[in-house]
Amino acid sequence: MSAGTSKWDPKPGDPEGKLLPFEEIKTEADLLPPGAAPGTVPTDLEQATGLERLEILGKMQGIDIFDMSPLPSDRLGTFENPIVVKSAGAEYQVGCTGSPADSHNVKWLVMDRKRPFERCPECGSVYRMDYIGQPDSHDDHHGEHHHHHPAHEAPKTMADFVKPEYWYR
């Protein structure tokens, strides 16, 4: 092999494979692997696609894409000082076990962009979701062939009937 080339570079006439670094991933198409050379066994990096590929590329850069570390349980969150979770998705589920940890059975709490605060009904700990995902784009709403679908409405709960003046701001 000559300087500046590697065994991963495509040979003349071969289709060019894509081994993009994590920073250059912009679309789902960027998560398609080049595959292994004929007659060889592919590595995880050559074979993985989609979220698995994104996770591998992130770990290679020291980034934990799916941060599954436990939330702080050394204190109870309050509205003034909530336990903050970051989410790239529009919705986030938190399993509260109390403070100290395992003080009660897991209570699953759901937060979303419209209702970023949630309070555990068992221990009263407050959680807040910080949305870190892509900002909404309204550019594609003006096309001629755009189909409008009714928005999904979450089921009503007692919290929906609390007067707005009692909401935390």
Automatic annotation (TrEMBL):
GO molecular function terms noted in the UniProt entry: metal ion binding
Topology class, membrane: Peripheral membrane protein
SUPFAM superfamilies: Rubredoxin-like (SSF57802)
Residues involved in Zn(2+) binding: 96, 104, 120, 123
Main location: mitochondrion
Keywords, in A-Z order: Membrane, Metal-binding, Mitochondrion, Mitochondrion inner membrane, Transit peptide, Zinc
Region of interest called Disordered, as start-end residue ranges on this chain: 1-20, 135-155
Biological process annotations from GO: mitochondrial electron transport, cytochrome c to oxygen
Compartment(s) where it occurs, according to its Swiss-Prot or TrEMBL record: Mitochondrion inner membrane
Listed Pfam families: COX5B (PF01215)
Keyword Phosphoprotein found: no
Top-rank lineage group of the source organism: Eukaryota
Pathway(s): Energy metabolism; oxidative phosphorylation
Coiled-coil ranges from the UniProt annotation: none
Biased composition (Basic and acidic residues): 8-20
GO cellular component terms attached to this protein's record: mitochondrial inner membrane; respiratory chain complex IV
Family: Belongs to the cytochrome c oxidase subunit 5B family.
Protein name: Cytochrome c oxidase subunit 4, mitochondrial
Source organism of the structure: Cladophialophora bantiana (strain ATCC 10958 / CBS 173.52 / CDC B-1940 / NIH 8579)
